[in-house]
User: Fold this.
Amino acid sequence: MINYANTKPTIYLVGFFTFLSLILATMYLQSIADKQSGDWLIHSENEIKRSELLQEIVTNIGFGGFIHNYKNSILRKDISALEQSSAQIARARELIHNYREIYPVGDELLLDVDAVLAEYYGNVTLIKSLINQGLSAELIDEQVRVNDFSALQSISALISSNRSVYKKIAKSSAETVDTFKQSILGIFFFIILLVIASIFYIVFILNKNVFQFKRIGILFDLAPLSIIAVNEDGYISSANKIALETFGLDKNTFTDINIDQLTPDAISKHHKKYREEFQSSERTVPMHQRGGQFNAQRLNGEVFPANISIATYSQGGVKEAIVVVKDISDEVKQIHDANVDPLTQLPNRRSIDAFLNEAILRSKRQDTDLYMAIIDIDYFKKINDKFGHSFGDSVLIDSAKYLQENIRETDFIGRWGGEEFLLILEDTCAEGALNVCEKIRMYIAEQSKLKGCQYTVSIGCAKYSKDSDTEILFDHADVALYLSKNDGRNKTTMM
Assistant:
C-alpha cells in the first residue's frame, strides 16, 4: 500500500521545481521577446535616419544639386550658379562627415565620394578665374573635368545596401515566432505533469506576445508607404492603412482582390506570368531603380506613377510577396510643373536650356549640324490691346499647337517667354531648317486667317558653330529675327 502522505513532499518539491523551471523558462522567453522588440525599434529608427541622411547627401549632389549648378556655371558662365554649387558641395561634405561618424560601416565608399567632392570644390576658384579670363565653356570644361565614375559607383552601392526596413520587420517577426515554437515545445515535455498549473502562466505570456505583435502591427500601419502582402495565388492577404487608402480598398473585403487588378491594363495581361516567375525564388527588387517610370492602378481604374519594391519569402512551405508602393504623383507633377509652361503646355525656358545643352553635346559628338530658330508673333501687343489679354492667351495656345503640328519628331519646340518660341533642329542642313521654318510661318498665317483674326510670325534661324558658345548662337538668331522684322515681318531669315 502506498503511503501518499510520504509522497506529498516529493510531489510538492517536484511541482515546485517544475513550476520554478516554467517561470525561469517563461522569463527567458520574455527576455527574448523584449530584446527582439527593442532591437527592432532601435534598428528601425536608425535605418530611417540613415536613409534620410543618405537621401540628403544624394540630393545635394545629384539633379538640382551641385552638379546641376556646377555644369550651368561652366556652360553659362554663371558666377552665382558657381557659388551655389560651392555651397552645395560644402553641405554634401558636411553630411558625409556626419554620416561617417554615425555609420562607420561603408566608410570607404563615402571616402571615394568625399575625395571627388573635394576635387570639385578645388575647381571652384579655378573656374571663377577662367570665366573672368573670358575662356569658352569648352576650354573651361577641359581644364576642370573631374573623373567622378568611382564616386557614382560608391553612391549607387550605398543606396543599394540600404535595405527595406519593412522586410526586416517581417524577418524579425518570423525569427521571434520560431524561437517561441522551439522553446515552448521543450517546456511542454518538461512540465507535462503540471499542465493545469502552467496553463495560466502560458496564457499570460501569450497575451504579452500578442501585445508585442500588435505593437508591430501599429508600426506597420503607421508606415508612410503602401505595404501589401500577396499570397502565392496573387490575392492580397494583408495591407496597411495607407495601402487601403491609396488603392481604394475596402478593409472588410480587400482579401478578395487579386494584385493583378491593381496593375495597369498595359501590363495586366502578362502580370500573372511575371508574378509567378518572381515568386518562384526569394529575392528583393526595387523596380523603380531599373530605369523608366512604373505605374500602379487604383481599384477604380485610375493609374498613377509609383516607386515599387517587391520582396518574396517562404515560411513553412507558404510563399508570400511583400509589395511596397510609394505614390509619386505629387513628385511627378512638381517635375512637370517646373519644366512646362502652364499656358501653352510647351517646355519652358528651363527645359529649353537643358535640351539645348544636350543637343550641342550630341552635335559635337556625332559631328552633325544644329540649328536654332526664334519664332516671334508679329504685333502681339496690338492683338492684346485690341482684343484683350484672354484673346492674346488663346493666340499663344493656338500658336503652340500649330508649331507642334509642323515640326519633325526629332525637333524640339518650347516657349521662350512672352510671344517668343524657340525651335531646336538637330541633324539637319540649312535647306532643311529653312523648309521647317517656312512651313511653320505659312501654316500659322493660313490657320489664323481661318479663325477670323489673322496674325503672322517672324522667324530668325541660326546655325550653331562648334567653336562658339550658346550666347553667340542666341545672338545670331536674334539678329536674324531682327532682320525678318525689319524687312516687313512675316519672314524667315537664316544666318
Observations:
- Residues 117 and 374 are 38 Å apart (CA to CA).
- The chain has a mean pLDDT of 80.
- The chain is about 60% helix and 15% strand.
